[in-house]
Write a structure and sequence with these properties.
Length: 738
């Protein structure tokens, strides 16, 4: 209190010195704007100004002037000027206002005042005209660019009016990001207004205001509600007051100490409880009505009094917030205007991009419902849909829901709980539910599944549990990384026996990577076999059944410079294969693969060659030939190796980014990595003298009926990633998941 008592006389003295004329004081609003307060001859409007008699500081000041109640001989009018500056740290000595032919020269006070000190000086100088001066200053500042310090200054100017204009008694949040206010005020006008939301960091917002009668307010007061829409996120608990222009000028309404704060699920009910009592412009009432009908965390579609129903069968979410949604919409009378996926302030319309499907089961389920009984066509059932949606942002805390808007502007909602799955697994689950004979299959693949996979992020696979069943670290030579999926689980014992019978592989380090479930079931048995055969074996688990992902997990878990990759579905035709691969690698480097053959000794793979039509396409030149036709050939340069079995530098694999996780099958997945390695300058070789035997489908992609669809999806993905670019740009890999 003592400090306040001392401040008042000092302020009065400052105002008295100004009134003698020729002197001004400055308040620093921010680094580029000054509030200058002074007295002298009449001056107002936009006036040329210059600081410290320096022509480089020439600018234009916005001046508000008024007649002084007490007029000393040297001054008849007071003024407040908003003065743009370029150097806030520069000492202030003099101020010139007016044209060069007749300037008025003023001397700055010895120190720059804080804004609240300047407001006190302004109040002393303006007296009864303070309200008009403050309104004019705020009007001028609101026309300028607004930063946080300028907004704080506006709040300070508005609060200089005596007393609060009302109180905010309720502050609530909505899922759409708007803030709802309820309280009372003396000067609030219905309609849309530009306001300042006061708090630690004040922000400018648009506020739709509606008013209503209240018996518990002071004389002249009325109840009001408002809906704030700001360009940056607002939280209800951060709102400390509201600056707005009402009847008679700019006013300030503070938050009541016993205010109520509500979350998004409670706020719509509070809006509805008072909305019918209010009046405002049609646009504001429409916004408030929409907010009152916003998402409250519960399903409301089933309560619609019109024949409209909506259901979701599956919703999969990939790591990058890409969604794949399948469900049905029953709307025989076409009441629905739009269907949107919403999360917080983000939204995406779905009904203009989804693929419709026949769903006779939906028709059958609603045939006897009174609302639908006479409307459903028993011949056509276009109720189903599949849609890819992405770009909703990363606000995982906000609830996800579908918003259905009717043509009469009513809205209804369906909360969603997505299943978080790797994109490959999500796509495989989805296509298993699609009839291969469906007429919309082509569009589903091209417009929904492929974009979902391209937009999804696939994290690099990693190993979980690790178990050493032999002296792995003591063994010499490049490690053999063996990837065995669940299809190969029953063949692990004879496979390990073959490795033990080969004098070379018996002493080579072997890293066996299994699906986690196989690891849990087989770890003890494999450890016994490895110890029996004295194999230097390390057993690893990974959360995947894709053999390429199992191989990648093993590569990333080891630290050796060179690795040998081997799919568990392959068996060496003869012993000595490991040594010949290592010798060829030491001589030529790069990536070296053997011949892959069927069990009838016909060639399945004998090198990938660049297609004559496109350097981004690969073909197998010797596929189908007898194995004897290629056995005698020498080490041959090829376009891309086979990663089912090869020897390669580990660092090259890591630099290339590993296998692209978006592919569902294995063929394009290997070709994609092969082309990327080729582009990076890594040579690929085929070693015909070494042969491996195995089936044509070492990777499980689900049911046999889904195999053609998987192949189609992978072909579309491969084409999207390797499509030629326009002339002059060269061929580049298109952006997709890696």
């Amino acid at each position: 209190m003592a400090g306040a008592e001392q401040a008042l006389p000092q302020t009065s003295q400052t105002a008295a010195r100004i009134m003698r004329g020729g002197r001004v004081v400055a308040c620093l609003i921010d680094d580029t704007l000054l509030l200058v307060i002074g007295a002298g001859a009449p001056v107002a409007g936009q006036v040329p100004a210059q600081v410290n008699d320096d022509p480089a500081t020439a600018t234009s000041a916005s001046i508000i002037g008024w007649r002084l109640a007490l007029q000393p001989p040297t001054a008849t009018h007071g003024f407040a000027a908003l003065l743009p500056i370029n150097d806030a740290d520069r000492p202030l000595t003099t101020l010139r206002l007016g044209q060069e032919s007749s300037p008025r020269r003023y001397i700055f006070g010895p120190r720059t005042l804080a804004v609240r000190e300047g407001v006190t000086v302004l109040a002393e100088l303006a007296g009864a005209q303070l309200t008009d001066v403050l309104d004019s200053l705020v009007d001028a500042m609101m026309q300028m660019p607004t930063g946080r310090r300028r907004l704080a200054a506006i709040v300070a100017l508005t609060q200089a009016r005596k007393g609060s204009d009302g109180f905010l008694e309720f502050v609530g949040e909505t899922h759409e990001g708007a803030i709802f206010l309820r309280g009372w005020a003396r000067a609030a006008d219905p309609g849309n207004a530009r306001v300042i939301v006061c708090g630690e960091n004040p922000v400018v917002a648009d506020c739709g205001i509606a008013t209503f009668s209240r018996q518990d307010t002071p004389q002249g007061g009325a109840g009001f509600i408002g809906l704030l829409a700001a360009s940056e996120p607002l939280r209800a608990r951060d709102v400390e007051g509201l600056v707005y222009r009402g009847r008679g000028g700019w006013r300030y309404a503070s938050v009541h100490e016993h205010r109520l704060i509500a979350g998004p699920t409670d706020t719509p009910g509070h809006i509805r409880s008072v909305l019918l009592q209010t009046h405002s412009t049609p646009a504001v009432l429409l916004r408030l009505r929409s907010a009152a009908n916003s998402f409250e965390g519960r399903e409301t579609i089933s309560t619609l009094p019109v024949p409209v129903r909506l259901g979701v069968d599956n919703i999969f979410q990939a790591n990058s917030s890409a969604f794949l949604i399948s469900g049905w919409l029953l709307d025989p009378d076409e009441h629905v205007q739009s269907v949107r996926l919403r999360r917080g302030q983000s939204e995406m319309r779905l009904d203009d991009r989804w693929t419709r499907l026949e769903r006779s089961d939906v028709t059958d389920a609603f045939t006897d419902e009174p609302l639908f009984k006479s409307m459903l066509d028993r011949e056509t059932h276009p109720h189903g849909f599949i849609v890819f949606a992405g770009g909703l942002g990363a606000d995982g805390a906000a609830p996800l829901h579908l918003e259905l808007t009717l043509k009469d502007s009513r809205r209804a909602f369906l909360p969603l709980t997505p299943a978080r799955l790797p994109p490959r697994q999500a796509a495989l689950r989805q296509i298993k539910s699609i009839d291969p004979e469906n007429w919309g299959l082509t569009e589903i693949v091209d417009r929904q599944i492929v974009p979902f996979l391209c937009a999804s992020e696939s994290p690099s696979p990693g190993v979980g549990a690790i178990l050493d069943a032999g002296a792995f670290d003591e063994a010499s030579g490049p490690p053999i990384i063996v990837a065995a999926g669940q299809a190969e689980e029953k063949e692990l014992a004879p496979f390990l026996g073959l490795l033990a019978l080969d004098p070379e592989t018996r002493h080579a380090p072997i890293a066996l990577v299994l699906h986690s479930e196989c690891f849990r079931r087989q770890a003890g048995r494999i450890r016994q076999l490895a110890q029996f055969y004295r194999l230097p074996l390390r057993l690893m688990s990974a959360e995947t059944d894709d053999v390429y992902d199992l191989l990648e997990a093993g590569i990333r878990a080891l630290s050796s410079e060179t690795v040998v990759l081997l799919a568990g579905s392959l068996l060496p035709r003869r012993s000595g294969w490991y040594g010949r691969l290592v010798s060829a690698y030491e001589e030529s480097g790069g990536i070296i693969s053997p011949t892959l053959a069927y069990e009838d000794h016909s060639v399945r793979w004998a090198g990938s060659w660049a297609d004559a039509q496109s350097e981004n396409s690969l073909s197998g030149r010797y596929a189908g030939y007898p194995l004897s036709a290629v056995t005698g050939l020498k080490l041959t340069r090829i376009a891309a190796a086979s990663f089912e079995c090869c020897i390669m530098p580990r660092e090259a694999f890591l630099v290339a980014g590993g296998f692209a996780g978006s592919y569902l099958g294995y063929r394009q997945k290997g070709q994609d990595l092969g082309l990327r390695l080729s582009r990076s300058g890594i040579n690929s070789w085929w070693l015909p003298s070494v042969q491996m035997l195995g089936s044509d489908e070492p990777f499980s992609t689900g049911s046999a009926s889904a195999a053609p669809l998987v192949e189609r999806i992978d072909e579309r993905l491969f084409s999207a990633r390797w499509a030629p670019q326009p002339q002059g740009e060269g061929n580049r890999i298109k952006e997709a998941s890696a």
